[in-house]
Amino acid sequence: MVSFFHSVREDVAAVFESDPAARSYFEVLICYPGLHAVWAHHLSHWLWRHGMRFLARFVSQIARFFTGIEIHPGAEIGRRLFIDHGMGTVIGETAIVGDDVTLYQGVTLGGTGKEKGKRHPTLGNNISIGSGAKLLGNITIGDNCRVGAGSVVLRNVPPNSTIVGVPGHIVLRDGKRVVITDPKDIRDPLSDVIIKLATEVHELRERFQQTPTKCWAPSLASPSMRRLRLRTSLPRSFSRTTIRTTRSEMQWPATSGRWPVQP
């Protein structure tokens, strides 16, 4: 019981440290559902570890109903976890969350399939995960990392890194910007398609440059040119019927390039 009250004091202090909107202890205790979800998880996790699995799930469902935050009783939560605007946040059964972690609205620590065993992420210490970020699978996020809002992280992240994007890729590491010179480093299926298309365009351009080009020009004696000259030489008073009749009656000379003129 003493350790529980000590944990409550630490959690409230973490709120004041992380959220500038916190004004009083009474407001934090009453109006922060993230704290309520964490405290309910302490009880449900204790029941889970002592074999009372159904009761543990029942307590977690009650907490989800009142807070909008679902934390599986089997998840291991560290000290001073702060869930800010936590509606829609989900923490899976085998997830492990370190100390001084901040989660924002809509964060998911989930799995990628129906496999058994460890299938949820492991978070280190001092990590901040932005709104709507999805961390999926048995991956490890190192200490002092930042995950951008809306990112989808599917692979391990080294410590002291900032990761953004879909799928997530590292943009900062140890305070230095990471420049991606090869698009394959992103491991994006759409990026692979673009790379393949660019390669094919390059090959087609080389083949076109190696193939000799021929200049094509229509012959003056071709039927298309004869029709064109006929249309331009006849007066506007001619009707379509007259033009059709004139075409059928005309005899084109084989040697002369001049057009026959009817009286």
Walk me through the topology.
Layout: H1 2-18, H2 25-31, H3 33-49, H4 53-67, E1 70-71, E2 76-77, E3 82-83, E4 90-91, E5 96-97, E6 102-103, E7 108-110, E8 122-123, E9 128-129, E10 134-136, E11 140-141, E12 146-147, E13 152-153, E14 161-164, E15 169-173, E16 176-177, H5 189-210, H6 223-233, H7 240-249
Parallel strand pairs: 1-4, 2-5, 3-6, 4-7, 5-8, 6-9, 7-10, 8-11, 9-12, 10-13, 12-14
Antiparallel strand pairs: 14-15, 15-16
Describe this structure in words.
- This protein is of the alpha/beta class and 263 residues long.
- The chain has two domains: 2-178, UDP N-Acetylglucosamine Acyltransferase, domain 1 (3 Solenoid), CATH 2.160.10.10; 182-209, no CATH class.
- The chain has seven helices and 16 strands.
- Helix 3 packs antiparallel against helix 4.
- The longest helix is centred in the C-terminal third of the chain and has 22 residues, at 189-210.
Beta-strand content estimate = 5-15%
- Looking at this structure, what is the CATH superfamily of the largest domain? Hexapeptide repeat proteins
Mean pLDDT: 79
Count helical runs: 7
Unreliable residue stretches: none
Which class do the helix and strand fractions yield? alpha/beta
What is the terminal separation in angstroms? 120 Å
Strand order of the largest sheet: 3-6-9-12-14-15-16
The run of helices and strands is: HHHHEEEEEEEEEEEEEEEEHHH
CATH class of the largest domain: Mainly Beta
Major beta sheet summary: 7 strands, mixed
Architecture (CATH level 2) name of the largest domain: 3 Solenoid
The total strand number stands at 16
- Overall shape: it is elongated
| Count of distinct structural domains | 2
Question: What is the helical fraction, as a range of percent?
Answer: 25-40%
Q: Tell me the Rg in angstroms.
A: 37 Å
CATH overall fold name of the largest domain: UDP N-Acetylglucosamine Acyltransferase, domain 1
